[in-house]
Write a structure and sequence with these properties.
With 77 residues, this protein is of the alpha+beta class. It has three helices and two strands. Strands 1-2 form a two-stranded antiparallel sheet.
Length: 77
């Protein structure tokens, strides 16, 4: 079974046994941000750490994402 997931991507991840869908999405998102030079992932004393290296670009990316996924109509913040 797919664990009750309804999205096709979640079902594909479950059938391929690539781990949990949420972990896979998080890994892909962090890899994308790392490739864009917005974050750096390190390990310190067996604990993973994420350091933001370009906060302004990260905020711009977030605002663009918000406008696409949560449109406010003709209201502009």
């Amino acid at each position: 079974t797919t664990g009750g997931s309804s999205s096709p991507a979640a079902e594909a991840a479950a059938t391929k046994h690539n781990g949990r869908y949420t972990n896979n999405r998080l890994r892909k998102s962090l890899t994308y941000l790392e490739q864009q030079g917005l974050i750096v992932r390190t390990t310190h004393e067996q604990k993973p750490e994420i350091t933001v290296t370009n906060r302004a670009a990260l905020l711009t990316l977030r605002r663009l994402w918000d406008k696409v996924h949560f449109p406010l109509g003709d209201t502009d913040l």
